[in-house]
Amino acid sequence: MRNYALKNENAVYYECGYSCDNEIFLRLGDEAFFITDARYGIEAAERAKDVQIVVCADLIGEARKLLRAFGVRKLTVDPSDLSVSEFRALSRDLSVEFDFRENFSQKKRIIKTPREVGLLRTAAKLGAQGFDALSNAINSNLNMGANDFESVLNAALSVDSNLNRDLDEARLNFLAENILRKGGELALSFAPITAINANAAKAHALPSNLKMTNGDLLLVDAGVKFERYCSDRTRTARVGEGFKFEKPQKFAEAKKQEVYEIVLEAQERAIAAVRPGVLARDIDAAARDFIASRGFGEQFFHSTGHGVGLDIHELPRISRRDETVIKEGMVFSVEPGIYLEGEFGVRIEDVVVVTAEGCEIL
Question: How far apart are alpha carbons 6 and 12 in whole angstroms?
Answer without folding.
Answer: 6
